[in-house]
């Protein structure tokens, strides 16, 4: 992840409803959630949730796919892991043991282990 992508991600996450939505999608796992269920759980109108989902998708933090008449949204674990790795890239002046917990979290979202999340 480069600085431009990180800024877009942080911009998308800097709004309360969008942060809440991304956390819901992370918890829901690879099965994701339908837009209507997201709106209901986030306690916002469907048009409002649509706006926020579009912003999260534009930042690359979520993906969507159509299933019958529903659109299912999922967290983009690779992008979220990339954001963590971007923050921790030059962590702690080379003292890896300080950053080990954060590095372990970021490692769960790498492309190599992404399939294991499903």
UniProtKB/TrEMBL annotation:
Pfam family name, one: HTH_20
Source domain of life: Bacteria
CDD domains: HTH_ARSR
A molecular function (GO) term: DNA-binding transcription factor activity
Key words, A-Z: DNA-binding, Transcription, Transcription regulation
Transcription in keyword set: yes
PANTHER family in alphabetical order: ARSENICAL RESISTANCE OPERON REPRESSOR ARSR-RELATED
Name by which UniProt lists this protein: ArsR family transcriptional regulator
